[in-house]
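Please, structure for the following, as tokens.
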Amino acid sequence: MAGSLPQRIVRAMGLFGGTQLAVIALGILRNKFLALWLGPAGVGLNAIFISTQDLVTSAAGLNLRAGGVRELSAAPPGARQRMAGVVLRTAAFLAACGGALMLLLSGAFSLWSLGEASHWWWFALLAIGAAAAIRLDADMAILQAEGHIRALARVTLVAAATATAAAIPLYRLLRIEAVLPVYLLMTLTYAAWAARERRRCCRPPTRTGLRNALRHAGPMLRLGAYLTLAVVAERLAGYLFVVFLSREASESVLGLYQAGYTMVCSYVTVVLTAISAEYYPRLAAVASSRLRMQTFARGEVKVAVWLLTPAVVAFVCVSGPVTRMLYSEEFMAAVPYLDLGVCGILPRAYAFSMAYVILARGEGRAYALTLAAGAAAGLALRVGGYLTLGFAGLGAACVAEYALCGLMAALACRRYGIDAGRAATVLTACATALCVGAVAAKAAFGWWVPAAAVLPWLVPLAARQVLPRRRSAKRC
């Protein structure tokens, strides 16, 4: 089992990889035109809409996707249609609540985010997106729990392609007024295509009434409530930092930060989400076995770190030209944030793998406390880092934040007798130090030093760790 686990992870990532690369490329293209025609102000306004909808969706949606995947994966095969019906009916109720909450707070969001309440109708229209996003979570949970990875990939690809096709002419014609329509179009396409794929790939769910659905959804909603506290705390920290930059600096600085955040965090989140599409249901299905969960978690950490480390070093070497290509010359001020912040991807992968162990066991309280503490610490680190060292301080804060989150998640897992293992922990620490060293070498001597001194031996070494060993297989 241990020998085949890395291959299973790599196969799952390969299945998702091509589609996710296309989604990332389409996102890069949208952001390129957004930055080119609307500038940092347009990028900043887009960040406000994303942060606001994410905050409301997390609060009202009770993290239905994560809770639904766990309940569906743990349910006996004969009971999954009934549970799917419960998830869908509950999602319809929560979507209505989320839309109403966004409408109710539209004026307040306009005042807090933009400094004036006159744009309340922008946030009122986001109520449509909030409701669609909550319903989307239910369809995606059913597809993920059933193992339809290709269908999940098609959903994200169609939504990204539709939004990109509409964004280019709209950004050109409507300028700043096009930011909200493009964002809503992507959310609605995402939700509509997810519903289509769920009806096409999965067996019809058992219909149930709202009262019966809420009664059977009790365990899922209790877990979801804890997950919501965790995600709301995380997204509230992100929202507060966006507001801090908007108030203390300017929308242009906010746009630079959002551009850097997109490259450092958002695109990597796509990769980690691709990993979790296979990892989380498999982990939830063996939640009763401490040994199997530990084996899966250790394997996930090692494979993720070996795959990501060469990519991080390569990105450090080319971050300047990539920023010019994806955005424009005025976004070059964010490069110090990119170079250091991208190194935080490795402790983030460690924290990600261990946090899913807590979630798969259904320990909502421990999961919420871990993520909320990490979010609070991350907000303090980002504010302090920006005030002291500017964008370079933000990058250093990113590394420290995810390292702290990884430590807290590992300590929480030890309560259940599940240990990440010394090998995985040391590997993550050494890989992070190597990437930080590459940043220092680039700053002192130029990009060619890490490119020539690190990548030639790192890439083959990483490949040997994660790819199948054909010679060993033939001897057996």
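Confidence is low (pLDDT under 50) at residues 472-476. The longest helix spans residues 5-61.
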